[in-house]
Design a protein that fits this description.
Helix 1 runs parallel beside helix 2 and helix 1 packs parallel to helix 6. This protein has a single domain, classed as SPOUT methyltransferase, trefoil knot domain (Alpha/beta knot, 3-Layer(aba) Sandwich), CATH 3.40.1280. By secondary structure, it is an alpha/beta fold. 33% of the residues are buried. Helix 1 links the parallel strand 1 and strand 2. Strands 3-2-1-5-4-6 form a 6-stranded parallel beta sheet.
Length: 153
């Protein structure tokens, strides 16, 4: 499994996602342009001392990412308006979970390119979405639950 953030905007979210990825030895792709500097103190604070353990790859644009891992791995797009439910999706273990910017999610043109590889986290309360870092956690751990034996960790 790998995680990719398309044009992330909020440094603490990206820092927390970096920490999640470091804790699970999951590669994190940041696809620019980024809404902050990687030197941002809030990004580093959220990742704490785990940042050096992160397998991080930064891409300057979507086209650069799409020519690399975006062309070699199955992308699974995650968003609050996509379907089906995360829990209806069967993971194989080699996917890249792709999340969009906090303010608007993944762009329509990208969603249209991947109509069969979409998921959403079911929400039945009175909110429209979850925090991005929480969403990555839920999706990543469900993918690992389906594809790895986590009982002995």
């Amino acid at each position: 499994m790998q995680v990719a953030l398309y044009q992330p905007e909020i440094p603490p979210n990206t820092g927390n996602i970096g920490r999640i990825c470091a804790a699970t030895q999951t590669r994190l792709h940041l696809i620019g342009p980024l809404g902050f500097s990687l030197e941002d103190k809030y990004l580093r604070r959220a990742g704490l001392d785990y940042w050096p353990h992160l397998d991080l790859v930064v891409w300057q644009s979507w086209s650069e990412f799409a020519q690399g891992p975006g062309s070699r791995r199955t992308l699974v797009l995650a968003g609050s308006k996509l379907a089906p439910s995360l829990y209806a999706h069967v993971f194989q273990g080699e996917e890249v979970l792709l999340f969009g910017p906090e303010s608007e999610g993944l762009p329509d043109w990208l969603v249209r390119q991947h109509p069969r590889a979409q998921i959403r986290i079911p929400i039945w309360g009175g909110v429209r979405s979850l925090n991005l870092a929480n969403s990555v956690s839920v999706c990543l751990f469900e993918a690992y639950r389906q594809t790895r034996d986590l009982t002995e960790l």
